[in-house]
TrEMBL record:
InterPro entries linked to this entry: RNase_H-like_EbsB-rel
Name recorded for this polypeptide: RNase H type-1 domain-containing protein
Lineage, broadest ranks: Eukaryota, Viridiplantae, Streptophyta, Embryophyta, Tracheophyta
């Protein structure tokens, strides 16, 4: 399988400090434009559900995917990221979604917790 890194909260009293590992690319640039700034707002899933946000990027010779799984209170429970072998942004997004589903099912949460997956619809459904 692909080389992916993932982490999970195993005790309720442990929470990931999301600010250390998850940030939007627009906020990472030192040359940000204030006129063309895109603002993202995360909406929580319905009570009792979990939400998995996935993202991917593909360049000519490299691709990667990542995701974060949060509960209905916004607490990050799972994080994954890593390089993948594919060509093109469409396939990279599909692999990110597939990886997220495999992770959720592998943890056994699919039996008792409903899931919402949020991804770049424009890329994955073309």
């Amino acid at each position: 399988m692909r080389s992916l890194m993932w982490a999970r909260v195993v005790h309720e009293d442990i929470q990931f400090m999301e600010g250390y590992w998850w940030c939007w690319p627009v906020n990472c640039s030192s040359l940000r434009s204030t006129t063309n700034k895109i603002v993202y707002h995360w909406e929580p899933p319905p009570p009792g559900w979990m939400k998995l946000n996935v993202a991917s990027v593909a360049l000519e010779d490299k691709a990667g995917c990542s995701g974060v799984l949060r509960d209905d209170k916004g607490v990050a429970c799972v994080l994954f990221y890593g390089s993948i072998v594919t060509r093109g942004s469409k396939m990279a997004e599909i692999i990110a979604i597939k990886t997220a589903l495999e992770l959720f099912i592998g943890l056994g949460w699919h039996v008792e917790i409903p899931l919402v997956i949020e991804f770049n619809l424009c890329v994955a459904l073309e």
